[in-house]
Hints:
Elements: E1 8-10, E2 19-20, E3 25-26, E4 35-37, H1 38-54, H2 61-78, H3 87-92
Antiparallel strand pairs: 1-4, 2-3
Helix pairs in contact: 1-2
Amino acid sequence: MSAVKITRIRCPHCAGQGYLAGDRRRCPVCCGNERISADDARAYAMAQRRMSDANGAGELSWPQKRKCAAIAEGIYELLQELPPWRAHRRATG
Length: 93
């Protein structure tokens, strides 16, 4: 039996609504389509991870760092893949 391959997921930026709630503009990630491809989801996860790493030290940045990292982790978990920032763990043991 072959494993299920996920090709499209609900947009993590707008939560699958296709628009941003505050000003009712189309979502810049999914362009109003409510779903994005797995490749676009990986790119979005990497951008969130980079944003998490780029936040400076300080009490106010910690909640945002955790939020960005959780989004990135959640996307890779949904795609059932090992994130690139943890790939060294699989290679070494």
